[in-house]
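Troubleshooting: if your tokenizer reports a length mismatch, compare your output against this known-good record of 65 residues.
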Amino acid sequence: MEPIDFSQILAKTDAEMERLGLTTEWGRGYLIKAYGKRSRILITEEELLDFLKYLESQPDPVTEF
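Known-good structure output:
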């Protein structure tokens, strides 16, 4: 298994949060609830991958006309 590029995973979580229309404040709150840490830099690689999988599993937001 190849090593994980932490910065690449951070960039992917940024892209997913943008896709979902989520704020940094939302992300901070989620990390505190899920991992007891307020920053992606403080969580483990495994936790970061878990967070990314969670974001990727969310459907695109519905835009109303």
